[in-house]
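thread: overnight batch results

M.L. [08:02]
morning all. the overnight job finished for the chain we discussed friday. pasting input first so we're all looking at the same thing
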Amino acid sequence: MCGIWALFGSDECLSVQCTSAMKIAHRGPDAFRFENVNGFTNCCFGFHRLAIVDQLYGMQPLRIKKFPFLWLCYNGEIYNHHTLKKQFEFDYQTKVDGEILLHLYDRFGIYKMASLLDGVFAFILLDTANRKVFLGRDTYGIRPLFKLLTDDGFLAVCSEAKGLTDITHAMAIPAKIAPFLPGHIEAFDLKQNGKVQSIQIQQFHCCTQEPAHAIYDTVERLPSSIKLFIETVKSNIRALFENAVRKRLMAHRRIGCLLSGGLDSSVVAATLVKLAKEEKMPYPIQTFSIGSEDSPDILAARKVAAHIGSEHHEVNFTVEEGIQAVEEVIFHLETYDITTIRASVGMYLVSKYIREKTDSVVIFSGEGSDELTQGYIYFHKAPTPKAAAEESVQLMKELYLFDVLRADRTTAAHGLELRVPFLDHRFTAYYLSLPEEMRVPKHGVEKHLLRESFKGLNLIPEEILWRRKEAFSDGMMSVKKSWYTCLQEHLESVVNDDQMEKAHKTFPHNPPHTKEAYYFRQVFEKHYPGRAEWLSHYWMPRWINATDPSARTLSIYEPDKDQ
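M.L. [08:03]
and the structure it wrote out:
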């Protein structure tokens, strides 16, 4: 986890512009650097470092003697860098995983370079010899990247949009800031005056394709015929998932895990503890849960932690603390999406605890499973398996606007690095290649195939394996009263009816329909005025005319179903 920032062709004084880069200092609390580009006085890089791999040579922009014309600023982890180094017999200068990008680019060009990376990344690569600038972002946008490009060719890039909002440039209308599309690369020509011209935007990977790097992976190619035996499928799911967790153990800092007590985080935590023992890690894995004392999540997480033998931490928080945190959460998130904000409060507070009270820095989490394995309760109402499969892929493509955005910003706000094994390229591609009928909810239980795959192994307690879906923002408080209900009650008096009547005029793009949504939008506009287009639409369940994203508001929600 780091913060990257770069300018190409700035008309303003760089020392003034550089203050914008300090807005993402939380992403890299260990060190920072600004560096001008030789021969291009109006181009520069800014980098905030969180040191996870290679403490000595990890500062960026990364440059090596073999390629003095290449400058790399990247945020991410490349899990297969050792494999690729060996495969292509590259001669390394550092122990930095990102060095592989320089060698791959030099040998194969930008498209194949991006395709061969197994990991999470956002990068800015400058080639001064060929006068090119390249941007790229991983398949699911797990690492964030925003760009600002003016009509006259001034380019500014940053891990978070807040690092671009105060960038000044001689132009009449403020330039549009937009998230860089996941799974894509963009190439620019770099002119002599430091300005750029976009020449190509290309998708290098989509979630339904097996990734190009699979042929070099430690888990061999798997059969994907329709006539698969269910036992083979379940065995493949387990093998690929375990492989996804194992490759993410790459770190020189302590590893921990978020544990809500739901299926996804429990399977991640249990697999992590198991592999940590196999790898003989010198410390016990710490797990972290958050909620009020009687919340379903706290109780379930306690049960899982005892079962897997983790060093468990419980973070209790009150409604008042949650409400108090909302504004800073919205500032970090850069969104006004309702469910994203609700779920982010708990994650932000637990990340704050981890940073202040422990030495865990690399944090595993269960994001991506609901989208991949059709875990949301509304999937029970999908009209056909085909519709469910299409919705699943659409959710995967939009993760960077919702759950992945939440997971990155709430942890990065406190200088932590998040790892999400459910969004492993090979695991997701395999799961999405399975027959549509196999992936739908069965016998009234969502994520049935995933649960079946881990059944009877004693990996996690059976009642947790079959525990029903509980939204993170719901399960943190008691069954009697959800966190979102408490929030809505508080905001009832903060926003008046008159404001609600005029909401569609005040906020024509994505107008808020509730006082809670109105308040979130107000806070967002205070920090990011006129940037409402960063969110294309609110996250909302399909097929059931939902007016609220919470699972507990749906008629199909059954809190006390006998498990």
